[in-house]
Amino acid sequence: MEQVKILIDLQEVMGQARRLDEEKQKVPLEVADLKSLFEEREASFLAAEQEFETLKQQRREKEREIEEERDKVERAKAKLMSIKTNKEYYAMLKEIEGTRRTNVAREEELLSLLVRYEEAEKRLAERKADLDEVSGKYRERRIDIDARMGSFDEDIGKLDARRRQVASKLDPSLVRRFEMIFERRDGLAVVAARNYSCTGCHMNIAPQLFNLLQREDRIHTCPNCNRVVYFEASEIEAAGE
User: Fold this and answer.
1) What is the mean pLDDT of the chain?
2) In angstroms, rounded to a whole number, what is the distance separating the alpha carbons of residues 23 and 17?
3) pTM
4) What H or E segment, with its residue span, contains residue 228?
5) How is 66-92 classified by DSSP, letter by letter?
6) Cα torsion for 66, 72, 77, 82, to the nearest 10°?
C-alpha cells in the first residue's frame, strides 16, 4: 500500500495546484468585466461631455448674436437724431422694431437653450461621478488582482516543487500513467474500492480483483474507469473487524 499512499499524496498536491490554477484562470475574466464596466461608463461620460460642449458653444453663439443685435439697435437709435426726413425716420423706426422682434425670438431660443444646457451640465456631473467611482474601484481591484496573481504563482510554484518531490518516490512510468488518468478523470485518479464497488465510477468490481486489492501491495486499476483503486473496508466490514 506504500505506493498507493504516495499516489494519494500526489493526487492531493496536484488537486490543490489544479484548484489554484482554475481560480487563477478566472482572474482575467474578472478584469475583463471590470474593464468593460469602466469603458461603458467612460463612453457615457464622453457622450455627455460632447453634448455639454456643443450646447455651450451654441449658447455662446446665441448670446453673441443677441448682443450684436442690441448694439445694432443702439446705433440705430443714435442715428435717429441726425435723420432729416420723415421717410427716413420712419424707415429707421421700422428697422429698429424689426431688429427688436428678431432679438425677442433669439432670447426665447436662448432661454430654451439654457434649460437644455443646465440639464446637460447636471447630467455631465452625474456621469463624471459615476466614472470616478468605477475608475477608483477599477484601480483598487487591479492592485488587488495583481497581488492575487503573484500569490497564485508563488503557491502554485510551491505545490509544483512538492509534486516533483512526491513523484520522485515513484517509478516514472507509473507517474506518467497516473498523470494521464488524473487529467482524463478530472483530477481523481486514485479512489477507494469499497463493498465490491469502485467509488470513482460506482461500478461493481469482480470479487477476484477485490480480494487481490485486500491482499496485494500492487497497483490495480478499475476495469471500468481505469482509476487506481485500493481496498478500503466499508463501515459494516470495519465494524465486523
Assistant:
1) 91
2) 10
3) 0.64
4) strand 228-231
5) HHHHHHHHHHHHHHHTT--SHHHHHHH
6) 180
